[in-house]
Write a structure and sequence with these properties.
mainly alpha, Histone, subunit A, 2 strands, 54% helix
């Protein structure tokens, strides 16, 4: 991986890198890419995909549901928020 690509990735991530960091990250990113190339060689044809586990909706344990209902009072939680805008929590802009 060349330094120009590292600079481009850093620009996309909106981070500034020193020359030393660019050289370091170029080597590290190349190692990651090399590892992915190694993973491509693994034969996964005999592995079946189990989509049922990834399609579950968010669930809580039944023995904890009662404490969740009791412990999370919306007004108490929002009382810790520094600033609100209507019903939304106001935060500093990212960009």
């Amino acid at each position: 991986m060349d330094k120009e690509l590292v600079k481009h990735i850093a620009e996309l991530a909106r981070i500034e890198l020193t020359d030393k960091e660019e050289n370091l990250f170029a080597g590290q990113l190349q190692s990651v890419l090399d590892y992915f190339e190694l993973l491509k060689e693994i034969d996964t044809s005999a592995i079946t995909v189990d989509v049922t586990k990834s399609c579950n909706t968010e669930q809580t344990r039944l023995d904890n549901q009662e404490s969740l209902d009791r412990d999370f009072d919306r007004d108490v939680l929002l009382g810790n928020v520094p600033e609100m805008e209507g019903e939304a929590v106001k935060v500093k802009g990212v960009f």
